[in-house]
């Protein structure tokens, strides 16, 4: 009888394991391959070799790029070098990247590990850059003032909070006000790995201001990219492992109400919003297994989608670019400026194309 019970429990355990394994593979799109979609004139950006995980383009064509991310369990081509913020002027015929010098006595450049970024331009045209940072694999938000003439970033403040333990991306709604995604619930690496494997969907979005910090949305299977509509009325959230982008209505008290969700056959990462058209541009991972378990013989692919009219009943989704990893590995972000497309990656290069 005892042996029968043991065999029954073992059988149940194996069945549950198989179910979770199948779910894990589905969430990671483990068997997906890409069909290439090419653009007519693409060039790799000189000077970017160790990632361009997030980027933001100002209305004047200056692009900020976060480079050198070290993320737990993820490939890095420069594991011992600190990250950096790069600047690129997209008005130039052949734009080059320049590393922005960081000034300020209270900032530790040696542990700089930038992830998601966002800008806020004040009424006096002061540009603030907010950067998700992972010094020693912790999570902070670094607040910088962009000094264009000096081509430098003045460090103003480091923000830490118990509701910001696993930051991924950020969208600024003021100099010290932002929404941010936490891509995990647990901080402990062992528990994080089980959270990911079991698909607990406990990650969440926080609103931060100096006076108030609140969870505004939760229940995500790896909350990732976040951005806001040009009129400031809607917040877009990418749920990486559910292959969804969620649209939330933003209220005057900063609370968010879910409005709709869109499903995709790819892992959606960072979201950029065209300030003129309101279109969403999304860097995607066709196959998450290849990005998590890096193999130089089976490279992670890249994909860029454009979403037009997202607030209507029939949004138009276009696959703009797709490549199997031989040119660009692990795309995370894409943004447009005057008919040009800039695509960034977790740990690889960056691509600049004509649309």
UniProtKB/TrEMBL annotation:
Catalytic activity: an N-acyl-L-homoserine lactone + H2O = an N-acyl-L-homoserine + H(+); a phenyl acetate + H2O = a phenol + acetate + H(+)
Class in the EC hierarchy, top level: hydrolase
Cofactor(s) essential for the protein: Ca(2+)
GO biological process per UniProt: response to toxic substance
Source species, domain of life: Eukaryota
Binding site for Ca(2+) 1: 53, 168, 224, 269-270
One term of GO molecular function: arylesterase activity
Function field: Capable of hydrolyzing lactones and a number of aromatic carboxylic acid esters.
Name listed for the protein in its UniProt record: Paraoxonase
Organism: Odobenus rosmarus divergens
């Amino acid at each position: 009888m005892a042996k029968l019970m043991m065999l029954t429990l073992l059988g149940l355990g194996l069945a549950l394991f198989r179910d979770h394994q199948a779910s894990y593979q589905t969430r990671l799109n483990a068997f997906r391959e890409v069909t290439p979609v090419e653009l007519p004139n693409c060039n790799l950006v000189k000077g970017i070799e160790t990632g361009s995980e997030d980027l933001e383009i100002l209305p004047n064509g200056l692009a900020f790029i976060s480079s050198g991310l070290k993320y737990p369990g993820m490939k890095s081509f420069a594991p011992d070098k600190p990250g950096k913020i790069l600047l690129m002027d997209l008005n130039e015929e052949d734009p080059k990247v320049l590393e922005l010098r960081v000034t300020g006595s209270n900032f530790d450049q040696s542990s700089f590990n930038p992830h998601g970024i966002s800008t806020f331009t004040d009424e006096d045209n002061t540009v603030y850059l907010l950067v998700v940072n992972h010094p020693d694999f912790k999570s902070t938000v670094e607040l910088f003032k962009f000094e264009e003439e000096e081509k430098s970033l003045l460090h103003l403040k480091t923000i830490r909070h118990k509701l910001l333990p696993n930051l991924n991306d950020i969208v600024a709604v003021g100099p010290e006000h932002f929404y941010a995604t936490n891509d995990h619930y647990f901080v402990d690496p062992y528990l994080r790995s089980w959270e990911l494997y079991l698909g607990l969907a406990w990650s969440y979005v926080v609103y931060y201001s100096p006076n108030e910090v609140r969870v505004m949305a939760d229940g995500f299977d790896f909350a990732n990219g976040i951005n806001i509509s040009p009129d400031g009325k809607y917040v877009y959230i990418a749920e990486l492992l559910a292959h969804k982008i969620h649209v939330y209505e933003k209220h005057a008290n900063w609370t968010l109400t879910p409005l709709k969700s869109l499903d995709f056959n790819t892992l959606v990462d960072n979201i950029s919003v065209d300030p003129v058209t309101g279109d969403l541009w999304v860097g995607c991972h066709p196959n998450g297994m290849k990005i998590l378990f890096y193999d130089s013989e089976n490279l992670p692919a890249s994909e860029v989608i454009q979403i037009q009219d997202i607030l209507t009943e029939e949004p138009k989704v276009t696959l703009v670019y797709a490549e199997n990893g031989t040119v660009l590995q692990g795309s995370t972000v894409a943004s447009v400026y005057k008919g040009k497309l800039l695509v960034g990656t977790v740990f690889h290069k960056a691509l600049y194309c004509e649309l």
